[in-house]
Amino acid sequence: MELSFVLSALRRRFWVVSLFALLGALPGLLSDPPAGNQYRSVAELIIQQPTQANSNSFAGDPDRYVVGQLSVLNGAALVTEVAQANGLGVADVRDAVTIEQIPQTDVVEISAVYPEPNVANSLAQGYVDSYLDTLETSRSDEDELDRLDREISILQNRLSNLNTRIAEGMDEYLALLRTRDPAPPVPQADVVDPAAVTEKNLAEAELRQLQGQKNDLKSSSRLRVNTRVIQNATLPTEPLPAGGQFLLAGGLFAGAMLGVVAALAWARFSTKVLDEETASDILGAPVVSEFPHYRSLARQPIAAFQSLPRSAVHVIDQLCVRAEAKAQVDGPLSVVVVGTQRSAGATTLALAMAERFASGGSSVVVVDADVRDPRITAIFNAAGDGGIPAVVTNDGALVDQRGQSVFTRTMDPEVSVLGLGSSRGAASLRRDTVAAMMDAARRKAQIVVVDGGPALDLASTLQATALADAVVLAVPLARQKSDLLSDLSRQLDAVRDKLLPVVTSPARRPARGAIISSEGLIAMPGLMASRPPDASRPGVDLTVPPPEDLPTKADHETMVFGNEAAAPSSSPAPPPPKQSQQHPEPAAPPRSS
Fold it and tell me: Is the pTM of this model over 0.70?
């Protein structure tokens, strides 16, 4: 599992980690606080394996010896002795005292926790003293040594008397050596006094045995006192922190770890695209940038055209530059903006790019090619103009049959709109009429921006992407399924070299069929097309079909804005005055027509 995947999964599913951490902390938050303060006293002993002995009883693993001594410390005899010394029950002592070996050492820690600090100190020190008393045998050793010394002294005196007796028996033979010549042979001592020699040999053997016992006793005494105290029991002065704090911290940590595992598992087996890197791999094209979510743009897409938020300017400028880099040097630039699904943010991107191109001095035509949701047509009140139906009917002419322009003017004089006209625009825009639409728009302006809606909604949209210089793909990463994106990637394989993916965070889809006009009202496309034409307004096609050929209000859903019904106006409202641009710097240099 790569680090980038882990970081992306945790960033996107951070709420899962937070939820699990909160659930883990609940036991600590809901646990009852302790009835009173608790004091902890600690004593430490070092228990080492013997290094000298007359036997092999302690040979082996040092830890094995320490574990054996832990059994002695936890034995019933020691617990009973400590309990009696402190006037407590055996169960109370067992609950209060904890005996543990510090890992990888021969040190044993004895800790006692009790509401009274003096009692806690007495319990811990009582264990130390009682344990050492079981090992301390110096008094019995001294008695035994005294006994052995007395017996050895008696044997030594006895041997001295026997030696004197044997020497007196040998004096007679030694005198003959001095008086006779030649000297007679001297007999052995066992011949002269065999009883004394035999008694001497027995005394010497007994003396050696007693001396051996004395040496063994001294060596054994040194082994039994090998355990020593490192730290006597401390007298606690501060109570322990409340137990709920440890439970809270532990639960928080454990819950967070489980949340991390759950978030990674969810991301691993989820059907949705995880991050930008995954989207780039599926589409086979690097993601250009991420267009942030703005409430103002979510409420009214016209805000992307009138007053683009400051933090979004850099994103749109970068997108415009990338799109112009794919254009032919001697021809107009055509950009098709599509989404991976409905309400992906394609209309917002198209309006923002059109205005940024216009701010650089280029003439721009915005084409509304989303026949299932003609939002741009509604925003700029372009339903009454000729639009795409007039272009198709008049073989690509820029004026309708009465000489009126098929384009709708906007509050920016450099930007005009080629809308869907009346309700017949949906029938007019087909795969075979896309070329005429694109050609008319290119003859009108230096830059053509097409709002195509979802890329796979219509065959005409795919045809427009094939005829365009650049294809901007809005990818709502938060709700984008990987299998649908893979299918879209296969469909756009022919235009992959001019694909510019952009990650978007659009708002929820509005009511089905509802669009937002420049006045900020939600209206239905068919109802906005049924208004009477205004001859005084430039760019209005006077050949709009009569009302009987248009959908009636009964054919559509009731529109509601807040708590009041929003009925279509009887006459078109003039477009609002253009707001001053917050960022006058051009998105791209002017293009020659």
Answer: no
